[in-house]
Amino acid sequence: MNFSFFIANRLSFKRAGGFSETIHRIAIGSLALGLGVSILAFMILGGFQSTVSDRVFDFTGHYQVQRYMMSNAFEEMPFSKRSRFFENYRELPFVEKVQSYANKAALMKGESEVEGILMKGMGSDFDSLTFQQYLIEGRMLQIPEEGTSNEIMISKYLANRLLIGLGDRVTLYFVQNPPRFRRATVVGIFETYLENFDQKVVIGELQTIRNLNGWTNDQIGGLEIFVDDSEASQSQIREIENVLDSDLKLVDSREKFREIFDWLALLDTNVYVFVGLIGFVAIFNMGAILFILIMERTQMIGVLKALGTRDKQIRRIFLWNGFRILLRGLLIGNAIGLGLGFLQDQFKLIPLDAASYYMAYVPIYWNWPVFLALNLGISLLTMLVTLVPVLAISKVDPIKSIRFD
């Protein structure tokens, strides 16, 4: 058996007892707690960012195709659905689906209140299954292939503001010359918890907007593009733009709602600082505790040196001891972080105020590369820190250390 490993095994805290056992447990506990909290922090951060960004993408698509305009009006310039892009987008392997839409500003009148809204008209290609998760009351729109059903879905926020509910008839006054209005029935109430959508958007039919604007049956305001990878990349943008018509432009949802995604990116910095502080304390504790162990075993080091043991062999004893502490800390830390994350993911144990946090419970995101990087990073830094006190062994004088008390 390896000499250094044999001595390190005899020095394990189960055998040593007393003070050694206590500081061993402190070292393991600090590492485990630091790693466990770090894993949970990245789980929650990733879950929060993923949940908010998915709500934006589900509502608007990852990209929108629109016609070039000279102004920043809410309403789009129409173009034909028989565009070159619509005919060729299926050749792009990363595009999952495309759906047509158009926006139109209006005033919506309830029983006694009036609210300014933006009606988003969806075509028959509207993916109601994806949007179903945000429906809290009623049903989805039933969009006919021809004509209109005069049905709308409104947010819970607007329903409360206008004092209207399912089955109520509301009047929509559209801002145009001459002004026109439509009577519509509320068939569904949704909630995304995002103010950009809940406070102003009403989901209606594209054909209604066509009729109001005098468009033909093949004209639309825009196309929403959904891709299989939500991380916007320049290569995706270039491939889409290569098949766009000359009078059409591509709008990235990350740019359109920059304030939301900049805010989400800012959260990264907070978590990195938080995890960095926790990691520093845990790793510093490891080095300090190993130094205490060396000081406690000064007499043993002197005896080993007097018997002819080389400094390199003695160093390996304490490196093995540090490695055992690190391994136990990693195992317990992963069990804490991944275990608590699994419980929250499955049973939603910790609720949130949706009005403040945009979701009803603490979200969890399983990012295995990040978890692996945390384990590797803490392991490498810990082993580097343990080298500092271990190097002091070469300065231990055998005669003085044997008489050390």
Topology record:
Elements lengths: L2 H8 L2 H4 L1 H43 L2 E5 L11 E2 L3 H5 L6 E15 L4 E9 L5 H4 L3 E4 L12 E5 H7 L6 E6 L5 E11 L4 H4 L2 E5 H8 L5 E2 L1 E6 L6 H9 L5 E5 H4 L1 H39 L1 H9 L4 H37 L6 H4 L10 H24 L6 H5 L3
Parallel strand pairs: 4-9, 6-8
Antiparallel strand pairs: 1-11, 1-12, 2-10, 3-4, 3-7, 3-11, 5-8, 7-8
Give a structural overview:
Pfam families: FtsX, MacB_PCD. It is found in: Cell membrane. The chain is α+β, with helices and mostly antiparallel strands and 405 residues long. It has 2 domains: 3-55 and 261-402, no CATH class; 63-229, no CATH class. It is 53% helix and 19% strand. Strands 1, 3, 4, 5, 6, 7, 8, 9, 11 and 12 form a 10-stranded mixed beta sheet that branches. A two-stranded antiparallel ribbon has the order 2-10. A hairpin with a 4-residue loop joins strand 3 (95-109) and strand 4 (114-122). Helix 11 (258-296) runs parallel beside helix 15 (368-391). It is elongated and about 105 Å long.
User: Please, what is the average pLDDT?
Assistant: 87
> Residue share in helices?
40-55%
Measured distance between first and last alpha carbons: 31 Å
Shape: elongated
Rounded to the nearest angstrom, the radius of gyration is 32 Å
Low-pLDDT parts are none
Portion of residues in beta strands equals 15-25%
Order of SSEs, N→C?
HHHEEHEEHEEHEEHEHEEHEHHHHHHH
Largest sheet: 10 strands, mixed
The number of strands is 12
Number of domains: 2
Number of helices: 16
Structural class: alpha+beta
